[in-house]
Amino acid sequence: MERKANIYDIARLTGMTITAVSRAFDPKGKIDPEKRAMILAVAEKYNYQPNRAAGRLSRKVIRIGCIMIADIPEYYNELIAGIKSACFKLADFKVECDVRLVPPGENEDGCCADIFESFLANGIDGVIMNIKYSPVVLGCIEKLKAAGIPCATVTSDAPGGRLFSVQNDLYSAGRIAAELLSVLTENRRVLLFTGTKDSYIQEHILGGFRKEAADRGLSILGEYDTGDNPAQAAVCAAEALGRYPQVGGIYISSANSTPVTELVKKKGLSGRVKMVASDVFPELAQEITAGTVNATIYQDPFGQAELAFEKMYDYITQGRLDRTVYTVTPQIVLKSNLHLYTSNRQQAGTHTEENQS
Fold first, then answer.
1. What is the distance of C-alpha 253 from the center of its chain?
2. Are 178 and 172 in contact, with CB atoms under 8 Å apart?
3. What is the pLDDT of residues 230-250, one digit of tens each?
4. Using an 8 Å Cβ cutoff, are 7 and 77 in contact?
5. What does the pLDDT look like over 193-218, one tens digit per residue?
6. Cβ partners under 8 Å of residue 64, min gap 6
7. 271 contacts: CB under 8 Å, gap ≥ 6
8. pTM of the prediction?
């Protein structure tokens, strides 16, 4: 190689992404030790040293748009934090993020359409999404695709229009929850409180839960669609606990768990009714510590969003994509290991690229 090697050369020679090469030179960067050693060895061979100041000056600004449904703050705040973390790590490569929130309600489609039009008009280079994929929204995605703007989904999916997706192993998450309740409950009677039931996420989680519940002899007394709406969750909880006082266990398959846990406490059912929730956030952590919630299935929204942003950057800059679905392994969080998921967000979850669809 006659000219001086750059980061793109090292990425190509090692088969790694640009972000992986960048992490290898950062002592605090999260990267497999063997991969770090290989990257550094190749960099030494070709006399490559990162020149961050020069990188900022020589590269065109890359702008990645992010559009999120603002329904459950405990959840979308983690997604935004992951996006901003990845953007910060790539700041030396002149990367910017434009995060837009869509208020839930009747005008979701109109708000999404306006944001997509804004992205088109302002020359966005790629889009990461966590929204409801109605026909109107899918049409907007196709419009961006036709304009050469790649779109990716995070923690959800819209197969067809998107370039790639980063998501939890949803089916396994549902199965894990059912197995936990089969061990925890004595009478094996359970209730489900779901997010928007016909969404991609919930369909897959509930499919896994129902299959494992049937295999383990759990009786599902009722399934309640909370619509990712706290007020609706409170109404559903009141109806369900009034109708099924004999319930032994509850699974909440979304981050919309606070209204349900509050009613369980109000009715004096803490401890008797075993509960499995989803994700980790401060309010839920308090319930796990207090014993109201026995376990939660962590799907690492922070890590998923961070990974989606990094993969989008790699695609925009290199045109490379090694797969269309990146899957994060769900993790069981109990009182005994809760501190690992609350003390340091970036250590709490670990995103993985091992599983492929």
1. 14
2. no
3. 999 999 999 999 999 999 999
4. no
5. 999 898 888 999 999 999 999 999 99
6. 87, 95, 96, 97, 98, 124, 125, 126, 127, 128, 309, 312, 313, 316
7. 291, 292
8. 0.78
